């Protein structure tokens, strides 16, 4: 794990987070079709792996990773989020992924720790 | 838990008697999160908040959500409110992080 040096710029990089989350999703449900028995472990694995990758960056942040997997069946789905935080240091990013049988939406929220 | 009450009241207030409508769902989700957030900030506690809302039409599709958090267990927490009527499901999650 990288050391944090006081004096480093504290900011959340949404592109980097977005890429690492996309890789996690691909590796876990990349070639799969929606399966009711497996979806439980898929969402759990996606959030765990994404969180681990984020924490490895070694930045002084608290993270929340949220993942929703929905079967494609014509239903409408809408998500929204609102945050009350310090806009200078905190941030979020959302990754939308889909294949033939399901949609996956992952949101990452990063909140700076005051040192 | 105060936060749980806030979440339930906001959902009931915004979509209480309505049926799923594709054209309005966007403003419903925004209203639910905005109202929940303003109620939470009124509580006056030293917390940062994140509120997420999912509205899904009842159509037989399966939906699974999960979240994982890296924080301080002694001071931070979350709660989730699940609401439904005969045409839609609404899931609101509130995360509170101590400053």
TrEMBL record, chain A:
A GO molecular-function descriptor: dynein intermediate chain binding
Protein name as catalogued: Dynein light chain Tctex-type 1
Localisation per UniProt entry: Chromosome, Centromere, Kinetochore; Cytoplasm, Cytoskeleton; Nucleus
Keyword Cell division: yes
CDD domains: DLC-like_DYNLT3
Residues spanning the signal sequence: none
Pfam family, one: Tctex-1
Functional description taken from the UniProt entry: Acts as one of several non-catalytic accessory components of the cytoplasmic dynein 1 complex that are thought to be involved in linking dynein to cargos and to adapter proteins that regulate dynein function. Cytoplasmic dynein 1 acts as a motor for the intracellular retrograde motility of vesicles and organelles along microtubules. Probably binds BUB3 as part of transport cargo. Required for the efficient progression through mitosis.
Any one annotated GO CC term: nucleus
Any one GO biological process: cell division
UniProt xrefs under InterPro entries: Tctex-1-like, Tctex-1-like_sf
Family membership noted in the UniProt record: Belongs to the dynein light chain Tctex-type family.
Domain of life per record: Eukaryota
Organism whose genome encodes this protein: Chanos chanos (Milkfish)
Keywords assigned: Cell cycle, Cell division, Centromere, Chromosome, Cytoplasm, Cytoskeleton, Dynein, Kinetochore, Microtubule, Mitosis, Motor protein, Nitration, Nucleus, Transport
TrEMBL record, chain B:
UniProt-recorded Gene Ontology molecular function terms: dynein intermediate chain binding
Coiled-coil region list: none
UniProtKB keywords: Cytoplasm, Cytoskeleton, Dynein, Microtubule, Motor protein
Main location: cytoplasm
Database matches in Gene3D superfamilies: Tctex-1
Source domain of life: Eukaryota
Biological process, per Gene Ontology: microtubule-based movement
InterPro entries registered for this protein in UniProt: Tctex-1-like, Tctex-1-like_sf
Family as reported in the entry's similarity comment: Belongs to the dynein light chain Tctex-type family.
Name of this chain's protein: Dynein light chain Tctex-type 1
Gene source species: Chanos chanos
